[in-house]
Each structure stands twice: as C-alpha cells, then as structure tokens.
Description:
Blueprint: H1 2-5, H2 8-18, H3 24-30, H4 35-47, E1 51-58, E2 61-67, H5 69-72, H6 75-88, E3 99-101, E4 106-108, E5 110-114, E6 126-130, H7 136-139, H8 163-167, H9 170-180, H10 186-193, H11 197-209, E7 213-216, E8 219-222, H12 224-227, H13 230-243, E9 252-256, E10 261-262, E11 265-269, E12 281-283
Antiparallel strand pairs: 1-2, 3-4, 3-12, 5-11, 6-9, 7-8, 9-10
Helix pairs in contact: 6-13
Amino acid sequence: MLGLLGDEWTLLIVQRALLGARRYGEFLDALPVSNAVLTSRLQSLSATEMLSRNQYQSNPPRFEYLVTPMSRSLWPMLTSIWEWERRWVTDHAEPLPRMRHTGCGHEFAPRVVCRSCTAEASGNDVVAQWGPSGSWQRSIPGGTQRRRSSGHRSGAAILFPQTMSVIGDRWAFAMLVAAFVGMRRFTDFQAQLGAPPTTVADRLTTFTDEGILVSGDGGYQLTDKGRAFFPVLVCALSWAQRWFPSPEGPAVILTHTACGRRFDPVLRCDQCQRHLRGAQIRPVP
C-alpha cells in the first residue's frame, strides 16, 4: 500500500481522476506537474491497474485514463487527507477548499463511523491487534529504502505537506501507528520496530515539530492533531487489506470496543448524517 500511495503525485493524479479528469492535458492543466513526472506516474498507475489506459483516437494516437474499482475505492482516504490538511495544517500556499456533499447540498466535514453499529469512532475506542499475516517486522521498510528529504519538497508537497511526512515514509508510518496503539518511549519504538536510533530520533523530531506528537513525562504522546489523523490511517488500512489480501489472513484486526465487533470504517456527512459516497463529494469553489 505504501509503495503505491507513498507518493504525493500519485495521490493527486488519482484525486483528479475521481473528480473527472481523463486526458493528459486535463491532468496537466489541473496540477503543477512537469510532463516527465506526469507521464511517469500515468504509466505506473496504468501498470498497477489503478487507472485504465484506453485509446480514444488512432491518428495520431491519443489515450485517456479512467478510474478503476481499485482507484475509485481510494476516495475515503483522499477525503480524510483533505479534511486533515485543511483543518490542521496551516502552511499551505493557498487555503484548501472546503467540501460539499451533493447528497444534502451542505458544506461538510467527514466523520468516521463503525459499519457494524453506525456509531462515530476514534482512536480511543478502536483496538488494533496483529492478524495472521501481520507483524512489525513485516510492516517496516527494508534497509535500502531512504527517506525523502523534507528540505527539497516538490510543488505537489505544498498541497499535502504533512500527510506525506507520514505516508511518504514507511518508518514514519509505522511509528505513528505504534503511537496509536500505545507506544510512548524512544526505546520502545527502537526495540519493537527494530529501527536504528538515528531513524527513530529523526521521525520523532519531525512529528514533534509538526505538532503530531508532544514529548513529556519520559515519552511521546499524540496531540489532538495527531489523533485527528486516525481516519487517514484506518481508511488506508482498509483499502490495503481489501486490495492486497494475504492467504494467511489479515495483517491487522481492528475491534470497535463500543460494540465489540470488527471495525470497518465508513465516512458519514456531519450535516445530514448519511453515509458518504465518493461521487457526491465536490470541492467548494
């Protein structure tokens, strides 16, 4: 999942495809992307079947890129990222637009609810445990993966700057998940994840600088901003386990303590209280 989605251009191209972009020029007009980067990402998205490349003209050959069920089902994660960045991240060159739910006509904020009991859920009442195919060792990167430099952000990173400090780096993603399940101390992050001390120190510094974690009492705690990232994490996990199932069973099992059932996240409109659908979400001009 992180191999596919830990790249901001990929997320932005899929987002534009979900909003109706289909042709090369439409993506180019909508995003501050170079021809080389756009061509590369469209090729990789087609190869991984996240977009379907179809020829609509033969002379000269022209292609369009259509959403597939795989990319269409990313809308809960993308909606959660948009809301988190809009509400919690202030260093955008321009404010991110609000969202409108065409089902009720109102501007809205998405809320995560449990599919089983329909009650709103948060990181405080969802418990995670490893499934048959899961472990810290299988969730962290190999030694050859390097962190992208935060000091050399592309034009895309201006749009989702802090989200990409989490999902654009596997060590950071693993450490934030660990914080959600109760890990607090530097030595615990290092021992459980098997991470080099410099890696742990670097990611903890990034998270504290961005206000996602706060240090104190001999450890690190999630802030309100950090806890608000919960919808992004659970929607990403749900997407990953749907499209990359293991024959051994799920990697992570989530339980909603309020109802005692397995937790499957659903997004709901905070205005009309109805379940959201991706096709009903539009940015407010």
